[in-house]
């Protein structure tokens, strides 16, 4: 009996050593993935809220303090976080400089889309997808390389817990694979469906589930459409585009105008974990988005 009790207590106790790593992630999606791998060995905060204008974030003083004392900064990379330069200058700690000891850029093992896009310097505004499309977490298969990079980053700081991180990741990937089967099956009838997206957030998601993003409402990522670009877009959409993908932060007025003049149906997808009450973690993020799309595509045929 005592032996069993001791085992039960051991199982309930934090992993060996028990040290908890303070991690700061730049997005709620990366927070969710760090938690999936780190389990009870990590305490994670996201610098960006779930919903915000793509790539513009203002930090509160408490968050800066949190970053200063963090063991690791986990970020999307590319030009996804133009606001991070200012944060780094304020925190002024070489550990968080790009490539520094506490800096983890999870884009490094990702097969990027649109990486041939001509480089555009940032003086015309933040976030132009100048180094490849940075919305790669929206392909659930990319959670494999992302969580591998996270696992290596965490294990470097807590080598004793590598086995724990490894087991946590395996369990997460099993649930991810079950989700992938579910999402792929749901989307199968709509392979080849042509869609327009407001911001170019969905190329990875579209590739995974067989959608074709034929155009974006923003002529350049982060740049609002002009009347002329909207007219050209809606004229083109009349040829077989029935779905307009927007996000909760999208200008509703512009979306409704595009829908009205093109006849397309507006579908609001959730770009990040927590952006909708149902999208409470990385897997339910896809449950919500796949369901909304399938409902819209099913109704739009
Ligand atoms: Zn973007």
Question: Separation of termini?
Answer: 63 Å
> How many DSSP helices?
10
pLDDT < 50 stretches: 5-16
- Average predicted confidence as pLDDT: 90
Number of strands: 8
Helix residue percentage: 40-55%
* Strand coverage percent: 5-15%
What does it look like?
The protein has 301 residues and is an alpha/beta fold. The strands form 2 sheets. It has a 4-stranded parallel sheet, sandwiched between helices. Strands 6-5-7-8 form a 4-stranded parallel sheet, sandwiched between helices. Helix 9 links the parallel strand 7 and strand 8. Helix 2 crosses helix 5, helix 5 packs antiparallel against helix 6 and helix 8 packs across helix 9. The longest helix is centred in the middle third of the chain and has 26 residues. The site of zinc ion has 7 residues, from loops.
Topology:
Layout: H1 2-12, E1 21-25, H2 28-38, E2 42-46, H3 61-68, E3 72-75, H4 84-91, E4 103-105, H5 143-157, H6 162-187, E5 194-197, H7 203-209, E6 212-216, H8 227-237, E7 243-246, H9 252-262, E8 265-268, H10 282-300
Parallel strand pairs: 1-2, 1-3, 3-4, 5-6, 5-7, 7-8
The site of zinc ion has 7 residues, from loops.
